[in-house]
Amino acid sequence: MRIEKIGQVVRHFAWGVGKVRLFDTDTRRADVEFSDGKIRTGLSWNHLAGERRAREPMKLETIPEGFLPIPGYEGYYAHRDGRLISTIRWIVLLSPHEDEDGYQFVSLGVTKNFPVHHAVLITFSGPRPDGLQCRHLNGNPRDNSIGNLAWGTSKQNNEDRIRHGRTNRRLTPEQVEAIRTYKVSLNAAVQLFGIGYNRVSAIRAGRTYAEVSI
């Protein structure tokens, strides 16, 4: 029997924090949507931590291979795949929070709401040139791997948003229904309807477009 547990927060040892989409009570396996926007299916419940532990920092024994110091932020390190760690009190993998469009942020010491993409870029591509912004080349603001990031002009950033359909426009009731009934995947909704990942989640949870009945 499959029971929906949409919204339950869990943590996987490899993919970090996510939300349960479905849980199979017979096999004790779950489908989980992670912060990178990908839905991974059939995960063993034994490999998923509960909500309380999911919100705690993930402690590590040593600094993993591939992490480099973030310039100007002593005690903080970035990886090419977009992960960040802190060594201030103990070695922990940082769990970013997101804005309504899916852009991720962390606290680096006294600096609050520091963009993850910025931390990765200054670590692996050097300081931000005057007047330039960070670009997410594939249009996914949750993909903070260095291969998806580049410094660019405001014009280039706007062109990226248009090319990837990431504009803030009103959805039709038919589009809202497609999103809520999972007729389209998370990534497909972002690309098809030109909205952010968090807007898709808000629609599915009924926090927005509440006037649209299914």
Helix-strand pattern: EEEEEEHEEEEEEEEHEEHHHH
CATH class of the largest domain: Alpha Beta
Domain module tally: 3
Main beta sheet: strand number and arrangement? 6 strands, antiparallel
Regions with pLDDT < 50 over 5+ consecutive residues?
A: 51-55
- Counting helices, strands and paired strands, the structural category is alpha+beta
CATH-level-2 architecture of the largest domain = Alpha-Beta Complex
Q: Report the portion of residues in β strands.
A: 25-35%
**What is the CA-CA span between the terminal residues?**
24 Å
Number of strands: 16
Q: Residue-averaged pLDDT, rounded?
A: 80
CATH fold group of the largest domain: Homing Intron 3 (I-Ppo) Encoded Endonuclease, Chain A
Topology:
Layout: E1 2-4, E2 9-12, E3 16-24, E4 29-34, E5 39-44, E6 48-49, H1 51-54, E7 58-59, E8 68-69, E9 76-78, E10 84-86, E11 92-93, E12 97-98, E13 104-108, E14 111-115, H2 116-124, E15 133-136, E16 149-152, H3 154-163, H4 173-180, H5 186-193, H6 197-205
Antiparallel strand pairs: 1-3, 2-3, 2-6, 3-4, 4-5, 7-11, 8-9, 9-10, 10-11, 12-13, 13-14, 15-16
Describe the structure.
This protein has 214 residues and is an alpha+beta fold. It has three domains: 53 residues, SH3 type barrels, CATH 2.30.30; 106 residues, Homing Intron 3 (I-Ppo) Encoded Endonuclease, Chain A, CATH 3.90.75; 50 residues, no CATH class. The chain is built from six helices and 16 strands. The strands form four sheets. Strands 1, 2, 3, 4, 5 and 6 form a six-stranded antiparallel β-sheet that branches. It is flat and about 50 Å long. The two termini are 24 Å apart. The relative contact order is 0.11.
